[in-house]
User: What shape does this take?
Amino acid sequence: MTDFQEYDTRLEDWETLRADTAFNGLLVGNGASRAVWDDFGYDSLFENARVVEEKPLSPSELSVFEAMQTRSFEQVLGALKTTSRINKALAVSSAAPRNRYYAIKEALINTVHAVHIPWRLVQPSTLATLNQELGRYRTVFTTNYDLLNYWAIQQAPETIGDLFLGDDHSFDLSRATTDKPRLLYLHGGLHLVRNQDGTARKLTSTEGTLLGSFAINNTLKTLDDVPLFVNEGPSTDKLKTIRSSDYLSFCYEQLLQHRDNLCLFGHALGEQDRHIIHALRLAAPKTVAISIYPRSQAFIQHQKRHYAKVFQGLEVELRFFDAKSHPLGDPKLSVPVEV
Assistant: This one.
C-alpha cells in the first residue's frame, strides 16, 4: 500500500460489505459512544476534572499527577492507595495520601457524571441494537470505558459475555476460554475495579444504579476499590497501565493475536493509540473494514490517507464504509444532549 496514491470519496455500504466478507472481530472506539451521546466527545477527562464545576482538581491534587508524570487516574489512585497502606504499616501518618486519594477520586466521579449519558435517557431499543450487533462477532474489542456496552450486555447476557465469571465476578485466566461471543475492554471500564491483589473484578448492579454507585466515594478508614480504566495520555502511559493488570494484558494479547478479518468502527487510531496500532500491525488481519463519517469529500480522502499510512507496508486489504450505514452508527441511536 503506498502513501502517494490518490483516494476517491466512495464509501461502501456496511450491509453490502458484510454480505460478501465475513468479519469475526470488531474494534470499537469513541465514535460509537458519540453516535449515542455527543458529550462523549470530550477531549480530555483529565482536563475536564481540572475545571469541573463541583470540586475540581486542586493544585495539591494536580501536583501528584505532575510528580508521577501521568494523566492516568488509575495510576495515580493506585499509587496513593499503596502509599497510604505503606505509611500505615510503617507507623507514618497516612492522612495526606488518603485525603488526596479521595479528593482525586471525587473529581473523577464528578467529571464522569458531567459527561456520561444518564440512564433515564437510554432507550431500550438502543441497548437492544447494541447487544444484537456486538453479538454478531466472535470477539469485540473496545477502548471505550463508558457504560453503554455494559448496559447493552445486561439486556441479554446470553448473547455476549465479558469473561467476568463466578460469584465474585472476577477475571480468571483459567476460565477465559468460551464458545460465546466475548467483549474485551482494552482500556478497562467504569464498572471494573482493581482488587487489592491486582486482579480485576466487575461491579454489578441493576442497570442505571451502577452509574449512581460510581458517585459514592467511600470515606471509611480502609481505602475502597480503584477504578480500572485507562484514560488519556501518551500511548506509553496507557501501555504501562495495561501491563500492570492481568485482565487488560489478556485483552491486549488477544488483539495482538487477532489475524481474522476485523471491522474498525469509530476509532481514530491517533498518536495516543500507538499501542493499538502496534498490536494491529503485528496481528495484520487479512481484511480491515474501516468506518468513516462522511463529513465532506476532503475529510473522507484525508481519513483514507491516514488509515493507509497506519497499515502501510502490510499485506492488509482496507475497505472503507459509511459509518451511518453500520448499526452502531445509525443516526436513530442519537440522544439529544441536555443543556
Residues 95-115 form the longest helix (21 residues). The chain is about 40% helix and 15% strand. The longest strand covers residues 188-194. The two ends are 46 Å apart (CA to CA).
